[in-house]
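notes to self, project folder thing:

trying the whole complex as one job this time. last attempt i did each chain seperately and stitching them together was a nightmare. two parts in total, labels are on each line so i dont mix them up again. if this works i'll redo the older ones the same way
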Amino acid sequence: MSVKTQIFLAKTFAGLCWIGAGVSGYFDSVFTDVLQIIFLASVVIALIVLVKAKREIYDEMFLENYQHAQAKTEDVMHGVFCIATVLTPFLKLVPSSASWDWPLIMAWTFFVILGIQNLITGILFWKYEEA
Amino acid sequence: MPVLKTRMYEFRKALNLQQAELAEMVGVRRETIGKLENGRYNPSLKLAMDIAKVFNKTVEEVFTFEDDED
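result (full assembly):
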């Protein structure tokens, strides 16, 4: 498998697993707890593949495309955070919002954000490699 | 806008080298050599010099910038 494919699969798979772990954290059941452990274990596997693939090669085009993808992702995430900051006060308008466990919600949302970040980086990296 | 033109393919064929062999000699991936030959990637000065050295040519003989007709 080429380094391009390894990085793309590792990043997108890790992204999906982070999102899965975050989303399953919103639910309180044994099933979702088990699911979350599986997702997090999968993230570790994806990260090992990622580190191994990066060690295998030092290639300037790869580095350029990877850094380009990370920089673009940072811009996208910046935009997402700005929108979230604007929208968050409106959540207080929801009648049951006072009873929500905000620290817990934010903890799992952090997992989802990590997932989106990994997913976007993987997709953009593939796009730049294909260009 | 100037476009990168290269004679890499011609020089590589003259030496009877595969893309993968040249890639290994200059320490990059085969895909990078492919994109360089198609003019879809601008190499760093170091890579350009390493490639020119393999061909025993100057960087200017291997890579040139030409004005795009469009």
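what i see at first glance: Residues 3-130 of chain A form one domain.
need to look closer tmrw
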